[in-house]
Write a structure and sequence with these properties.
Layout lengths: L3 E6 L3 H10 L7 E6 L2 H13 L4 E7 L7 H10 L7 E6 L4 H9 L5 E4 L4 H18 L13 H8 L1
Parallel strand pairs: 1-2, 1-3, 3-4, 4-5
Helix pairs in contact: 5-6
Keywords: Phosphoprotein
Pfam families: Response_reg (PF00072)
Organism: Pseudaeromonas paramecii
């Protein structure tokens, strides 16, 4: 079983650490990577693509120095290499307009306001990686211990 990647992007180290801690139950099945900027994430995405790896999920903060999370996720949505990658925006400072842009331009799959509920972040992440595994027609059995059972049931029946 090739491990799939989940990338978390936030310029604040304590927020990044909290997200990684919340996603720790997924570590047995997915490789968790952290980036502190959109630029660092883009470099990692290129590196992973060159290695033939698949990125199941990117969780990004919105307000970051340089490029915003919405800009990063919009670029990801437009990149054919990552068209199936699931996208989550995590923010405490987005305006209504930012949120609309995230949904329309970046085609985000979920939106969280800070502070987020750790259990909800984990549950939504499980659902999204389940959708990714099924959309990619990967063998889901090696991931069965962590995938969202309701999503599996709905998609397979």
């Amino acid at each position: 079983m090739d491990k799939l990647y989940i990338i978390c992007v936030d310029d604040q180290r304590e927020v990044l650490s909290a997200v990684m801690k919340d996603l720790q139950p997924l570590e047995q099945y997915f490789l968790l990577e952290e980036c502190e900027s959109a630029e660092e994430c883009e470099a990692l995405l290129d590196e992973l693509d060159s290695a033939g790896a698949q990125v199941a999920l990117v969780i990004s903060d919105h307000i970051m120095p340089g490029r915003s999370g919405v800009e990063l996720l919009a670029q990801l949505a437009a990149d054919r290499r990552f068209s199936e990658t699931k996208k989550v925006l995590l923010t405490g400072q987005a305006t209504h307009r930012d949120t609309i842009e995230a949904v329309n331009a970046a085609r985000i799959d979920h939106y969280f306001e800070k502070p987020w509920d750790p259990d909800e972040l984990l549950q939504i992440s499980r659902r999204l990686v389940t959708e990714f595994v099924l959309a990619q027609r990967l063998d889901y059995e090696p991931y069965a211990g962590v995938l969202d059972q309701a999503t599996l049931y709905r998609e397979l029946h």
